[in-house]
Amino acid sequence: MFKKILIATTALTLLAGSAVGQQAKVLKYTHYQPGREDQPKHAAALAFEACVEKATSGSIDVQIFPAGQLGNATTALEGLKFGTLELAVVHDGGISSVYQPFDVFALPYLFPNHETAYKVLDGEFGKEFADEMLKETGIRLLAYADNGIRHFTNSKHPIKTPADMQGLKMRVQPAPVFISLMESLGASPSAIDWAELPAALAQGTVDGQENGVTNIMAASLYQSQKYVTLDGHVYSLHAYLMSDAFYQGLSDTEKQAVETCVVEARTIHRDMTRATDLAAEKTLTDVGMEVYVPTEEEIAAFRELAQPAVRKHLEEAVGAERVEKLLQAEAEAAGSQ
């Protein structure tokens, strides 16, 4: 009898061990847009979840935390570095707080259209940049997606020329490169975290800000911002970032699933954001904003002030070679269209 009990106990122990061994790997996934399917980040996250769980037969359990539920961008990036968070989709300003070279993408009036940006980011420059980030941070940059073409908004008056920026208190992302941009145009920059921006605008702490249409709509910034100028000064980025410690713990099949599914997510993310960008004038007019579309000559006036000043800052902050490589990659991409 004792022998039978011992055999049964051993069998149960082995079965329990086998079940533990087959337990799904949890992939916590955070982003900073509302958890609604009309939001590009969330629609992309849902697609990634379904794709990965199907491709791995459930060996990876994707758990989505929208609207910054796991903390701000800096907190998320630290979690990725130290392996307490698996995946985050973070905006450019937040990334540069941990990896400053990301500021290079904030060079104003760089990309003439979405297609040029995609060629640069999906090409050799984007790949080399991701490799450098991985080596320095332990964070794996899986894909680049749109955060929207950035435009100026404010509550005081229309902005048609750089002179109209003079004296405006403008919110910027907590990144020195955006401070340099505002100062070059004569505005007074104030670094405010994204989560605090709607209240800062509503309370008049700042007069205006700069963001893409998707974010203006997602946070209902139009409620306190009367005027918008569609100057498109920065092609703003989101990046799909994964803890390399988590990635290295995946099987080859699971790694392939993550890499394939993040491309699907990126495509949805880009397509939705780009569509909103292209419909900016109508979208913002419909919610009551006064929209100004500057001429090419007017945009050139902004570029002449902003680009040299920001380029000088970037060359000092992230290196002249990196800035030159980006400009060369952009020129080649634009020339190939």
TrEMBL record:
<dbReference type="InterPro" id="IPR038404">
    <property type="entry name" value="TRAP_DctP_sf"/>
</dbReference>
<keyword id="KW-0675">Receptor</keyword>
<keyword id="KW-0813">Transport</keyword>
<keyword id="KW-0732">Signal</keyword>
<dbReference type="InterPro" id="IPR004682">
    <property type="entry name" value="TRAP_DctP"/>
</dbReference>
<protein>
    <submittedName>
        <fullName>Tripartite ATP-independent transporter DctP family solute receptor</fullName>
    </submittedName>
</protein>
<dbReference type="InterPro" id="IPR018389">
    <property type="entry name" value="DctP_fam"/>
</dbReference>
<comment type="similarity">
    <text>Belongs to the bacterial solute-binding protein 7 family.</text>
</comment>
<feature type="signal peptide">
    <location>
        <begin position="1"/>
        <end position="24"/>
    </location>
</feature>
<dbReference type="Pfam" id="PF03480">
    <property type="entry name" value="DctP"/>
</dbReference>
